Amino acid sequence: MAKSAGDASEFLPARRTIPTLRKAVQGCRGCELWKDATQAVFGEGAKGAELMLVGEQPGDREDIEGEPFVGPAGKLLDRALEEAGIDLGDAYLTNAVKHFKWRARGKRRLHQTPRAGEVEACKPWLEAEIVAIAPRALVALGATATRSVLGPGAKVTRDRGRLLEDGPAPITMVTVHPSAVLRAGEDRELAFAALVEDLAVVSAALEGVRGKHGTTGSRAT
Ligand code: URA
Ligand code: SF4
Questions:
Q1: CB under 6 Å to ligand 1: residues?
Q2: Which ligand is nearest to the CA of 99?
Q3: Residue 97 alpha carbon to ligand 1 centre in Å
Q4: Which residues are near ligand 2 (CB < 6 Å)?
Q5: Measured in angstroms, how far is the CA atom of residue 55 from the centroid of ligand 1?
Q6: Cβ atoms 113, 177 nearer than 8 A
Q7: Cα of 213 from ligand 1 centre, angstroms
Q8: Which CATH code for domain 8-208?
Q9: Does the predicted model carry a pTM greater than 0.90?
Q10: Tens digit of pLDDT at every position of the chain (221 positions)
Q11: Atom from ligand 1 closest to the CA of residue 178
């Protein structure tokens, strides 16, 4: 395997606001993934967002439109957030990896899971977003985001839905990726309900710190 350039760190601007980062990411050559992508897709959302949601990487639609979570997985995520009582206006959506990794099958571009080295290479962008937004709550969606945000110690299957200690935000959770719900077949409704339930725990915890209800929910252990 050819060794990549290293990582994204040398491409980050000195002054790291969301707008300066978003501009600079288009020039990133921290791994090979930029080569086959249309553009880098940076995070989007409210300036003072209290919740950050981290996905894996842009998909086919996101790569074309230049915005995260605008395809089918994003639509499902929007519905789940709404059902969990979370206002999209309070959220910032981003990905662990900023360029779409894919392989061709006929005319279609099939998603490929980024390798651990690519996730690692891209991490400086995500870290800078977390510093710039300083969200009260952060949710990692799926295994790739979980690895990037919490390291190899956290596992979606084991840890999903609980508020975790020592995450990058005061309220940190891991849950499934919305694409996994889309792929759940017959179990799709159950999988969707479970995602909503996890997000509702985060919503309740956020309300708790806002002081609306005084304390966080009983599951916030
Ligand atoms: N899946 C992701 O993980 N992120 C997106 O932006 C879209 C689909
Ligand atoms: Fe840089 Fe991340 Fe794109 Fe790789 S995937 S080139 S590290 S922005």
A1: 55-59, 62, 68-69, 71, 73-74, 95, 179
A2: 2
A3: 9
A4: 8, 25, 28-31, 33-34, 40, 97-99, 121-122, 125
A5: 5
A6: no
A7: 33
A8: 3.40.470.10
A9: yes
A10: 444 459 999 999 999 999 999 999 999 999 999 999 999 999 999 888 999 999 999 999 999 999 999 999 999 999 999 999 999 999 999 999 999 999 999 999 999 999 999 999 999 999 999 999 999 999 999 999 999 999 999 999 999 999 999 899 999 999 999 999 999 999 999 999 999 999 999 999 999 988 755 444 444 44
A11: 1
Please give the single-letter amino acid code of residue 73: A
